[in-house]
Write a structure and sequence with these properties.
Length: about 140
């Protein structure tokens, strides 16, 4: 994590903690939502971040939780962006034959099994719905 992001997380923690060494669930939810995370996802993040089951997070727990979540969000956005390069109609779908051609011939090609696994998740009516694949891969709804 870069130092700018670290400082941003520390500043958010300090602002909402009022000088205390921890944040409770309500305070955490407010902060997390300020970073663009949906309420339901914020609640799940808090449960995941509260590894001690204490009902609060200290600054280290908070920074760890936020850096994991935001790195995951960046990776998710990068994957959607890559798929969008093939979605010239801007329909959030790519014809299955075009996607298959690209994924077996460009960059690090997928083998037949890998391609079929992807299509099993996202193919409907000859179209690859790439957001379905991204959601399945990352295990949550996009914010």
């Amino acid at each position: 994590m870069d130092s700018e992001k670290l400082q941003e997380y520390k500043a958010a923690f300090n602002l909402f903690s009022g000088g205390q060494d921890r944040l409770d669930a309500a305070q955490l939810k407010t902060i997390i939502q300020k970073f663009g995370v949906k309420e339901a996802n914020a609640e799940a993040m808090i449960k995941e971040g509260d590894t001690k089951n204490a009902g609060y997070l200290d600054v280290t727990d908070f920074i760890t939780m936020m850096s994991k979540k935001m790195a995951k969000a960046d990776s998710e956005d990068d994957l959607v962006f890559a798929f969008q390069k093939f979605d010239w109609r801007k329909t959030f779908t790519i014809p299955t034959n075009e996607l298959s051609e690209a994924l077996t011939n460009l960059g690090k090609p997928l083998n037949a099994r890998e391609l079929q696994t992807l299509l099993d998740v996202c193919e409907k009516d000859g179209q690859a719905h790439y957001q379905l694949f991204v959601r399945a891969l990352f295990g949550e709804e996009k914010k």
